[in-house]
């Protein structure tokens, strides 16, 4: 059973468009019944909505909606990224965990928009709840791997200590090793900027799933507390007819 489309958190930027319906749902809630979503494997694979409706027909970590059908991804600390084009009225949802982000899932998703006739200036992006630099501890060997990624340039956003989160609603993640505390939403934001999207067109909700979201929202927190977790769906749909510009 699907819940009303008004349930969950919204991006004020996407809402301001008027023709986009979307939500970052709390853990355990379902997207609308006609929503397409894929089998996610932290890849850089993007599929059209039709190829994963009914859901989970094939592996993909982003879904592109050519004709307005709701598309979703599910997360439990990874980054949910929703994108809309005001030129073509097409929308997409991307699952951008660390692995997928390094594999180029965001760049591949943007490429679908570009191939359909949008430019970076036509796009609006919302980054939903994900584990934040207050709670995302990475071992140092992994940090070296990240720095070697072709999509990563400049100093990694984050620090060798956890960020203080004054908005935390519960204890942040404990430090368990010599580590780097990565700001994954900031890393994704930087990649989007590098693709030409203006900062004013990127809405980062900056909500940490570990210490700020509802209980059961965080895979990482479950590894520390054994409290269990459920997937969080993030979905987006267009209410206007698509206007693809490509041949
Ligand atoms: Zn946190």
Automatic annotation (TrEMBL):
Recorded family membership: Belongs to the purine nucleoside phosphorylase YfiH/LACC1 family.
Protein name per Swiss-Prot or TrEMBL: Polyphenol oxidase family protein
Pfam families: Cu-oxidase_4 (PF02578)
This protein's UniProt keywords: Metal-binding, Transferase, Zinc
Gene3D superfamilies, alphabetized: CNF1/YfiH-like putative cysteine hydrolases (3.60.140.10)
Catalytic activity: S-methyl-5'-thioadenosine + phosphate = 5-(methylsulfanyl)-alpha-D-ribose 1-phosphate + adenine; inosine + phosphate = alpha-D-ribose 1-phosphate + hypoxanthine; adenosine + H2O + H(+) = inosine + NH4(+); adenosine + phosphate = alpha-D-ribose 1-phosphate + adenine
């Amino acid at each position: 059973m699907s819940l009303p489309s008004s349930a969950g958190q919204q991006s004020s930027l996407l809402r301001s468009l008027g023709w986009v319906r979307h939500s970052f749902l709390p853990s355990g809630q379902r997207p609308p019944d006609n929503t397409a979503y894929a089998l996610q494997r932290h890849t850089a694979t993007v599929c059209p909505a039709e190829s994963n409706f009914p859901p989970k027909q094939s592996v993909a970590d982003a879904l592109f909606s050519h004709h307005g059908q709701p598309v979703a991804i599910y997360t439990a600390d990874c980054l949910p990224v929703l994108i809309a084009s005001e030129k073509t009225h097409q929308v997409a949802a991307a699952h951008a965990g660390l692995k997928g982000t390094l594999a180029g899932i965001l760049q591949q998703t943007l490429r679908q928009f570009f191939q359909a006739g949008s430019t970076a200036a036509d796009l609006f992006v919302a980054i939903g709840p994900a584990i934040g630099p207050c709670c995302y501890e990475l071992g140092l060997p992994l940090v070296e791997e990240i720095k070697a990624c072709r999509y990563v340039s400049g100093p990694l956003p984050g620090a060798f200590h956890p960020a203080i989160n004054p908005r935390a609603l519960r204890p942040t993640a404990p430090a368990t090793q010599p580590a780097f505390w990565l700001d994954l939403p900031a890393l994704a934001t930087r990649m989007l900027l590098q693709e030409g999207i203006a900062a004013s067109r990127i809405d980062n909700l900056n909500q940490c799933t570990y210490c700020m979201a509802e209980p059961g929202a965080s895979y990482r927190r479950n590894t520390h507390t054994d409290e269990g977790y459920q997937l969080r769906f993030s979905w987006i749909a267009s209410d206007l007819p698509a206007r693809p510009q490509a041949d």
